[in-house]
Amino acid sequence: MAGIETSEDSQLAQPGGRGGRSSLAGNATDKALNLLEAAVAPGYPHRLGDVAAAAGVPKASAHRILNNLVATSFLAADGTGGYGPGPRLRALAARVTQGCEEDQIMRAELEVLSRRVGNTVHLGVRTGDAATCLIKVAGPKPVQTASRVGMHLPLHATAIGKCVLSGLTDEELTALVGRVGLAARTEHTITDLDALRTELERVRAQGFALDEEENEIGVRCLGAPVRDAKGAVIGGVSVSAITYLDSREALLEWAEQVRTAADALHGLLG
């Protein structure tokens, strides 16, 4: 999980990593959903061109669909060409999360884990070609990470992301890397596909993933896979530690507790 806020977080997230290639935009439903997700990514309001590029939808089509989403109140236009969440989408989000038994169970599990390890805990799931933080439970230490709910994370450079990638076939992994690449977030980021394959083999063997300051210098994370009701990996639970407060060895000692928390969420997300 990302720890200290980075420059990527202030930019428009790329839910599908499509980079504006219309051939990957999908059918009408895919386009509308991708545009909706791109428009409400952290840092909104976002301009038409940025939303279209992130969703992989041609600008003309994006403009028409976004106007429809504004007309139906799923999105709101700021009057200067920017888009963000509308009242209908906000109400829908509230209905999904407010009083949701699954959400309460997941948060309770993460709160227990956070108390046990004394650090910030996150739950994230795959959203397109990235991961998104669904729940954050801040730790008690005075130095806090700047991660936030809704933050999009690169799959190859975070513990939660590596958990997601560990559930892919090699063909799926190769295709994903072909779409989004392996950008260097820090000097420690894995940027070679073969090296990433080796890393994912390690994740599968040990049941947890490590982010060794690969997404942000000064933050080390350990994550374990979260699976849906069918057993497919859809996300992960992670503990984030500031490197000068907690050693790598201390982080590794929490691996079994993180795995246990992740297993407790099995099937709760679908």
Overview features:
270 residues, alpha+beta, Arc Repressor Mutant, subunit A, Beta-Lactamase, 2 domains, 6-stranded antiparallel sheet, 3-stranded antiparallel sheet, disordered N terminus
Written overview of the protein:
There is one protein chain. The chain is 40% helix and 19% strand. By secondary structure, the chain is α+β, with helices and mostly antiparallel strands. It has helices spanning 28-39, 48-55, 59-71, 87-97, 101-117, 159-166, 170-180, 193-206, 248-252, 255-264, and strands spanning 46-47, 75-77, 82-85, 120-127, 130-137, 152-153, 209-212, 219-227, 233-242. The longest helix is centred in the middle third of the chain and has 17 residues, at 101-117. The protein has a six-stranded antiparallel β-sheet, with helices on both faces. A three-stranded antiparallel β-sheet has the order 1-3-2. Helix 1 packs across helix 2 and helix 1 crosses helix 3 (59-71). It has two domains: 7-93, Winged helix-like DNA-binding domain superfamily/Winged helix DNA-binding domain (Arc Repressor Mutant, subunit A, Orthogonal Bundle); 100-264, GAF domain (Beta-Lactamase, 2-Layer Sandwich).
In short:
The protein folds into two domains: 7-93, Winged helix-like DNA-binding domain superfamily/Winged helix DNA-binding domain (Arc Repressor Mutant, subunit A); 100-264, GAF domain (Beta-Lactamase, 2-Layer Sandwich), CATH 3.30.450. Helix content is 40%, strand content 19%. The chain contains ten helices and nine strands.
